[in-house]
Amino acid sequence: MVDRSYSKFPEIRDYQDRGMKKWMGFYLSEHGSAMKRDAIIARQEKVDKIDLEEKIQLLNQAYLNKLTIELVLSVDEIISRIQGTVVEFTSTDFVFFKVDEVRKIDIKNILSVKYQGGEAT
Fold it and tell me: What residue numbers bound the domain in which 109 lies?
């Protein structure tokens, strides 16, 4: 404990420093941000990326055979997985994918396509 008897103010004399406790909030927020960033990088490294032709071929097979598939998407550096069926294609840019509702998905954002029973890539 630090001796503060030199001060004429009782607030200063009676003050008890919290030490490292006052830095804990800063540390936790920085640590949490770093952990999230590392997890995103680790997930991106684990996902097998496929080329455009292969994506279109796999999506077309799923569409024609009405298969349930899982897509791995990367949107704004956030990787997510969704399961559903392919409803429609628009040229080679977008696929309409039904999960709970029909979603328009940019084919460029698709990293991987998995059939419900196993890997398609």
Answer: 52-119
